[in-house]
Design a protein that fits this description.
This protein is mainly beta and 235 residues long. The chain has one helix spanning 2-17, and strands at 23-30, 36-43, 47-54, 60-71, 74-82, 94-99, 103-106, 113-117, 126-135, 138-141, 148-154, 158-165, 170-182, 185-193, 203-211, 214-220, 226-233. Helix content is 7%, strand content 57%. The protein has an eight-stranded antiparallel β-barrel with strand order 1-2-3-4-5-6-7-8.
Length: 235
């Protein structure tokens, strides 16, 4: 009976870790000042980001992220940006997790993230790097292998962009929230914006088109300036 119990426990553990973290996850916590915080994790294939902001106001608190891989129940990350401690950039922490279809949690942590989506239904789910802009009808390309990056990660319903430099370990800015893709229109509903908390609550609409792994993104920025960006799938 004892052996059967151990085998059953092992089976359940393996079943839990066989789930995929790809998608978006959320946990609510409380700050030392008693303010409710929203913690959002987005996983795409190979890349992830965690952001924390005040649940009611959208005031930005923290973000970190980079690459990830999962072997059994051990998650290993390579940190590409960290708003609180730049010295963590380039490090490869690993930790044991519990992962099911409904929640993800680091072993030993009291914070349990509940699944928001599994990568659907958004047509733009994945990790993207800004690879160019179109200005005055001319395309200006950007080398996506350089240390200075602007990355956008999307799940099925959530998005976040992050500007950073892996060489200098500088964090430039970030923003995120929810999004939809309908009839060629990509709509961002901004929930937090590190450079200007007053942008929280804005809804921006853009024309978008996918073509051979490139995402053409045209519309008006949060400042009201016309933009035409080109994003490429991050390998």
């Amino acid at each position: 009976m004892k052996k059967l119990f151990l085998l059953l426990s092992l089976f359940l553990s393996l079943k839990a870790t066989a789930q995929s973290p790809i998608g978006a996850w959320e946990a609510l916590t409380t700050s030392d000042q008693g303010v409710q915080l929203r913690n959002v994790l987005i996983f795409s294939d190979g890349y992830q980001v965690l952001s924390i902001y005040e649940a009611e106001s959208g005031k930005f608190i923290h973000s970190n992220g980079g690459t990830w891989k999962l072997e059994g129940s051990i998650m290993t990350e390579e940190v590409e940006f960290h708003t609180d401690n730049p010295d963590k950039v380039g490090t490869t922490p690993n930790f044991e997790i519990v992962l099911t279809e409904d929640f993800i949690q680091i072993v030993g942590s009291e914070v349990k993230f509940k699944r928001i989506d599994n990568g659907s239904p958004g047509a733009l789910q994945g990790a993207w790097l800004m690879s160019g802009r179109v200005r005055d009808g001319k395309t200006q390309t950007r080398d996506t292998t350089r240390p200075r990056k602007t990355m956008k990660i999307l799940s099925g319903t959530r998005f976040q962009w992050i500007a950073y430099n892996t060489e200098t370990k500088e964090f430039k800015g970030t923003g995120g929230g929810t999004y939809t893709t309908e009839d060629g229109v990509y709509t961002e509903n901004i929930v937090f914006f590190s450079r200007d908390d007053t942008k929280a609550g804005l809804s921006l609409k853009f024309d978008y088109e996918l073509n051979n792994g490139q995402w053409n993104h045209k519309g008006l920025s949060s400042k009201g300036d016309p933009i035409h960006e080109i994003w490429s799938v991050r390998e």
